[in-house]
UniProtKB/TrEMBL annotation:
It comes from Aphanomyces astaci. Its EC number is 3.1.3.2. Residues 131-356 form the Calcineurin-like phosphoesterase domain. This is Purple acid phosphatase. It catalyses: a phosphate monoester + H2O = an alcohol + phosphate. GO terms for molecular function: acid phosphatase activity; metal ion binding. Residues 374-431 form the Purple acid phosphatase C-terminal domain. Keywords: Hydrolase, Signal. It is an enzyme of class 3 (hydrolase). Belongs to the metallophosphoesterase superfamily. Purple acid phosphatase family.
């Protein structure tokens, strides 16, 4: 009996040792996936077997959730790649603003703070885009501001720049594990998750993003590449839009227009349901900026830059500068801008351009503090730096920085929402700051 027990113990130990847990990252969840006020625990492993994730707060009993897993393969000219098993477990209905500890199968443990409630504490959100393998921008967001700690990190596209080389996705999530295992993230795809492929590698068309980013969308939406969604996070209603929606189809085709219209219809419904007494601020996140004064990634539907003289033609992909395939934001703006205005969207964050920029409230290429939105490009995450500005910079332009990496932050209370941008070389003093007030009380903006 002793020998058998010893053998069993050795075998069990060996089995545990054979398993691995890497690329651990937390992600925000939502009601759409039936996990309100929660986070998901996501990781890679060489084992397909379910892992048990145990979690508890200092005030509550321990709970357990088993993971589900999947993997994928892709054949490129340069290589054949098979992913590790990608595991996920949803931890739902968490107490607001509470510290939880969690453990993954006895192999990895950490802590996180759950999403805030609507009023008890300030809502603190970090935002960054176009990071690549630069660690500084995410480390930036770990630093407290005004003695407040970032509660979640939002990524406005272009995560790893894998461009079809899926080993880089593995490397990227390994690199981010020290931060993402403690701080939940959410985001939306950019062009490098969809239409960009490096030499010898196929364009991803969402493959790596959908399998790894733990986006809170339904299986049906994932199957149809509809990656737009929303989350109520503390005092802020967050809306994530896909600039490359319909990218699988020919520009101008019925299918292409149909997928874009489906996103527009969804956005109209989503914003109509926002309760601004609960979430007084509405923030849109998408990859491609429209009101962007850098020369990078410009597109036009009319002879005059930033003007849309014929909305229907623009919506259908008829451009005078660039193409709707590579720079779809102009065509989308033909319909999105009026929806923003009707619902008084406060801020539209984008990346794509590798710099930082902030506008005044803008509507139809003019300053409009009543129905306009503030447009912020926060693509200075680390991939590279932006180039020169366009000639005749418009009056709605307020501030830009093309030469330093950095990250943005939102600090929202019922009185105001501060929008800050810190460079990675000075995380104590904001290089740019602006206060935005609830539209229920006022439509004004004050430079900080």
């Amino acid at each position: 009996m002793v020998k058998i027990a010893a053998f069993t113990a050795i075998a069990t130990t060996a089995a545990v040792a054979a398993k691995s847990v890497t690329q651990v990252h937390l992600a925000l969840t939502n009601r759409a996936i039936e996990c309100a006020h929660g986070v998901s625990v996501n990781f890679a492993s060489d084992s397909q077997d379910p892992f048990t994730v145990t979690f508890n707060s200092t005030e509550g009993n321990q709970k357990k959730v088993d993971t589900v897993s999947s993997k994928y393969s892709v054949t490129n000219t340069a290589s054949i790649y098979t992913s590790p098993f990608l595991h996920s477990a949803n931890l739902c209905n968490l107490n607001a603003a509470t510290t939880y500890s969690y453990n993954v199968g006895g192999l990895f443990s950490s802590t996180f703070v759950s999403p805030p409630g609507s009023s008890a504490t300030p809502t603190v959100i970090g935002l960054v885009g176009d990071a690549d393998l630069e660690e500084g921008s995410f480390a930036n967001l770990q630093q407290p501001v005004q003695n407040l700690t970032t509660q979640a990190i939002l990524i406005v596209g272009d995560y790893s720049y894998a461009n079809g080389n899926h080993k880089k996705w593995d490397k990227w999530y390994d690199l981010q594990q020290p931060i993402f295992s403690k701080m939940a993230q959410a985001g939306v795809n950019g062009n490098h998750e969809v239409i960009q492929g490096s030499k010898g590698y196929a364009k991803e068309y969402y493959l790596g993003y959908l399998n790894r980013a733990a986006t809170p969308i339904t299986p049906d939406n994932a199957k149809n590449f509809r990656t737009y969604y929303s989350i109520n996070f503390g005092l802020v209603h967050l809306v994530f839009l896909d600039d490359y929606v319909g990218a699988r189809f020919r520009i101008g085709s019925t299918e292409w227009r149909g997928e874009r219209q489906a996103q527009v219809d969804w956005l109209t419904t989503d914003l109509a349901q926002v309760d601004r007494t609960s979430t007084p601020y509405v923030v849109v996140l998408k990859h491609n900026p429209y009101y962007n004064t850098y020369s990078d990634h410009q597109c036009q539907c009319s002879p005059t830059i930033y003007a849309i003289d014929n909305k229907e033609a623009c919506w259908n992909g008829i451009y005078t500068v660039a193409t709707a395939k590579r720079e779809p934001q102009c065509g989308l703006q033909a319909k999105l801008e009026d929806i923003y205005a009707a619902n008084k969207v406060d801020v539209v964050f984008s990346g794509h351009v590798h710099g930082y920029e902030r506008s005044d409230y803008v509507y139809q290429n003019k300053v409009n503090k009543d129905v306009g939105s503030v447009y912020i490009t926060t693509g200075a995450g680390g991939r590279g730096h932006a180039h020169t500005q366009v000639l005749n910079v418009p009056s709605w332009h307020v501030y830009n920085n093309p030469s330093e990496f950095g990250a943005s932050r939102l600090i929202a209370t019922r009185e105001k929402m501060q929008v800050l941008w810190h460079t990675n070389t000075d995380t104590t003093k904001a290089a740019d700051a602006v206060d935005i007030y609830p539209r229920l009380n006022a439509a004004c903006i004050t430079k900080g």
